[in-house]
Each structure stands twice: as structure tokens, then as C-alpha cells.
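Entry 14. Ran structure prediction on the chain below.
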Amino acid sequence: MAIEPNELPQVKNLSELAQRVAGCQRCVLAETRTNLVFGVGNPESDIFFVGEAPGYHEDKQGEPFVGAAGKLLDELLLTILGINRKDIYIGNVLKCRPPNNRDPLPDEIIKCRPYIERQIELINPLVICALGSFSTRLLLKSNVYISKVHGAPITIDNRLIFPTYHPAAALYAGTTKKILADDFKKLGDILMNITRPEKPTSAKEDEDREQMELF
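Output, C-alpha cells:
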């Protein structure tokens, strides 16, 4: 049975969320999808890459960014950030492919939005890299243009959002590919200098630590 938005707080981990989302019928994309594409990667990653929607190859394989755009993303991750796909978490605003890879419709984004928001809550990344206009607008909660905000980190709800172009936009445009690479260099600098806040300790934990330091 598909999960409803008011049930999301009850879901305690990504595996449970994926199982519950698997049968989603909340919008018309359920009628044309081959596979629902939930997301993959390290659930404890400090960075979450959020794209737009699955494409042809993603729909067939049930995994995000496995086509040409995914290969470019893998290249940027490895050559600029020095990390592999398995080190990050990656997903999309929509979990199902729009027919003919058309743009997501507002109603589809609204229906799917609770899923990506719960994924973010469960992963709790330090940085979210928004790939492309649709994920950027959703995460920044503003109808911005990616050409105006790319490469500039913005804090929203105590979380750092880093918008940049979608890799698909750079496949056939050398200028966009260079911009994307430059943005990833900026992202690398951010990741090198950002740290996760220490978890607050209880009074008993502080007392136990003080006792240990006596020996």
C-alpha cells in the first residue's frame, strides 16, 4: 500500500520509506513508469545530490543518474571532489519518469514533494546539491533561475543548499560543462571546510567523561 504524506513521520529509515513509496499511485506518472526510482547511495553521507526526474535509462534500471548525465556526474565526483558515487546519496524530486522526458508538472512535484523532504530528514546531510532548475526551486522555495543562483550556497532551514546546473544540460554545451566543473570546485571547497555540529551531551554523559579523565 502506498504511503500517504501524513504517515511520513512514522517512517524511521530509508529502507522502510523505499518500501512504502514503491507502490505510489499519487499522480499519473504511476501509469507510465517501468520502475519507481527512489534513490541510492550512502544514507549517512554529508551530501545529498538532488536531480529533477528519472530519464529513460533510470526508468529501466530503477536507479538515478545511470545514463549519460550520470556518467558525467560520476566524472565530476571523482576528478573534482575525489569521491565515488557510493560515498554520496543521490535522488530526484520526482520518483517516476515523465513521458518522453518532459518537464515535471506542478501537480507531480506537489504530490512527490513529501518523499524527497522525508529523505532529506532521514539522511540529514550537511549540504544538498540541487542539480538543475526544478530541484533548486523546490529546495530554495523560490522561483529562481539556475543561471542566476548557480555556484552560490544558500542556507535554508538551517541546511546549506548548493545549486548548480543539471549534468544533462552540460552534455552538449561546452560552456555549461565548464561552469558546472567550476561550481563543483566551489562545492569541494565547501565540503572541505564544513563540519557536522557535535551532538549535545547529557549531564550524565559529561559526568561519566569527567570520571574517566580522572584515571
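DSSP finds eight helices and six strands in the chain. Will compare against last week's run tomorrow.
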